[in-house]
Amino acid sequence: MKFFSRYSNFRVVLRPGIPGQPLIGQPPKPGLYVTFVNGMAEVEDEEAIRLIKAKKDFGTTITAAETGDKWKDSRKANEPEHNVIDIKYGQVGKNLNPKAKKMKEEQIEAIKKMAMDLARPMAMEIAKQTLKELAEMNKPAEEKPTVVNNANATAIGTAGSSEETPKE
Questions:
Q1: Domain chopping of the chain, boundaries
Q2: Which end of the chain is more exposed for a tag (fewer CB within 10 A), N or C?
Q3: What is the pLDDT of residues 104-127, one digit of tens each?
Q4: End-to-end CA distance of the chain
């Protein structure tokens, strides 16, 4: 039967071992232990299964395989990640394998929801701004009054007009 533990390397003492006493002729009695490897233990001995289910930690720190492994996302690895750093000419280079943080599915879904909530008003604002800019670009150019300076006189008229002030 499979059991899961909250901890990666967890050892459960089901029956403690008793050391032998050679002076009085008592032989040592071995204990009964279950070791979890990567949070999982495969137990085939019926007595060990009965003792595990009778432990007070059963249900909180240890669960049976039927309930599933509820700690697989939060359990730490047995061995830390090894950082491989490139060293060239006595200089420490960059880390070649930085550890990526694993996110839970709930966190990923929450981030997507927040991003969509933020993106909707921004998209609406960008669309409004773009429509305003397009409307302004498509307007016909209006004639604006301009001031033309001549050496002898100053004329005020519209762009492209050929009117000049009379010379005195």
A1: 1-16+30-71, 101-137
A2: C
A3: 888 899 999 999 999 999 999 999
A4: 116
